[in-house]
Amino acid sequence: MIRMQGLVKTYKEVQALKGVDLEVASGELFAYLGPNGAGKSTTIRILTGLTRLGGGSAWLNGYNIAEAPIAAKRQCGLMPQATNLDAELSVWENLATHGRLFGMSASERNKRSEELLEYVDMLDRKDSMAKTLSGGMKRRVMIARALMHNPRILFLDEPTVGLDAGVRRRIWALIKRIHQEGATIFLTTHYIEEAEFLAQRVAFLNQGRIVALDSPQTLMAQTGVWAVDTVSGHEMETTYFRDREEANQFITCQLGGCTLRRVNLEDTFLSLTGSKIGQ
Ligand code: ADP
After folding, report:
1. Is the CB of 41 under 6 A from ligand 1?
2. How far is ligand 1, taken at its centre, from the CA of residue 178, in Å?
């Protein structure tokens, strides 16, 4: 459903993408994970037609984004990282404007807006001005807006950035539901738990290159099962084990404080790149 071949993007002296090859299957929930500045948003901006390719090719549902940009754009909906609802328009008008841009008739727009606002649990706020909504509500309306023209692919760029834990979980539940109903979802995140919780497959992006690609479970298993964090002075070091007994034996030999925990995706990223993803 999404195919990228040798994607390259350079902004003046910054090489944001250095040749990205990736395929995402129809109906997959895929997470593109990496630290700030890795090139995640640039990839989404290229795929959704917001910025030009520097090199390489990409296809959305078979449509080449450079040769058939309009057809490619119709295949996808985008929730960008920054909130970009029209603040002075109502929730309903925000959806209607989007529908008009995609050539939907008034009756189609009304039917779809009602369905989607019901779906994201915002129908009772349809007449509220966008600027009066909370952060989580704005995100839900942005998801509804992205789905307005019935796209096959949903791009979510850092869908829960800046939201508190409870609101984040509510957005996760919504993303899972959209996926279960058949959409292909490509999300970027630098929240490890988000990728672990949601994604069937994950790509680690670091400095414009994919450094690993697999299911979260397989990636984590490469590092180990158990992690022991040891603190000495201001330094923290982590040692990984497959066997819990071995981890416990290691702990008994330590002089300082230790914490035993399960390996997570952050550990795998750290062991592959030497740097952290999250905050
Ligand atoms: P991420 O989404 O992973 O945080 P981005 O794709 O936003 O990363 O950025 C990748 C790199 O490209 C960064 O070094 C960033 O500073 C640079 N960059 C992104 N957009 C622009 C731009 N419009 N002009 C110049 N540099 C940019």
Report:
1. yes
2. 29
Greatest Cα pair distance in the chain: 71
| pTM for this prediction | 0.93
Say if residues 173 and 95 touch (Cβ distance below 8 Å): no
Cα–chain center distance at 245: 36
8: helix, strand or coil: strand
Read off the tokens for 91: 């929730």
A 10 A CB-CB count for 173 gives: 10
Q: Which atom of ligand 1 is nearest to the CA of 39?
A: 6
Number of neighbours of residue 74 by Cβ within 10 angstroms: 18
pLDDT tens digit string along 225-255?
999 999 888 888 999 999 999 999 999 988 8
Partners of 155 in the β-ladder: 78, 186
| Tokens (6 digits) for 185 | 């979802």
Indicate left, alpha or beta for 266 from its phi (over 0: left) and psi (-120 to 50: alpha).
Answer: alpha
pLDDT at 278: 65
77 pocket-lining for ligand 1 (C-beta < 6 Å): no
